[in-house]
Give the backbone structure.
Amino acid sequence: MMNNLDELIKKLAYYRNVEAEYKQELDDVRAEIQESYGHILERVESLLKVAKADVADAEENVRKAALDAYGESGEKRIHPAVVIKVFTVLNYLETAAFAYAREHLPTVLRLDKRKFEKAAKTIDLEFVTKSQEPRATISRDLSSYLVSIPQSGFLVVTPQRVVGRSSR
């Protein structure tokens, strides 16, 4: 059993190493793009930010003009591209709504499981049973187990480099 676990840990160490290499490769490529094209990216991001602000302003102006036209005419279809929709908006005190829901609509109330379980660990409740559950925590550093994985029985993944870049 321990021998099997040791092999599984070696496999995990190998795959974590492969993952780290791919992450490093991605970071390297991003750094190269930033170095080579950073000024272009910044310019386009700046232009996009201005365009988004212009769109937001134009949309707000259209909405305001449409609502003004609706206020004058009462027509909901004031333009082929704009429709007025009327929504019901509720205003209430949250404490009063909670009290009403607790008494008359208990199904609308949701349990915050995380907070309840934290409290239930320290309180004896007859409807809560407590048990011990073992869970395996794997060390983040498995470098001492990193060996080449034999081909038999394992899927061997070899990181492929981005075209035009040297291999590690």
In short: The chain has one domain: 7-130. Residues 7-130 form one domain.
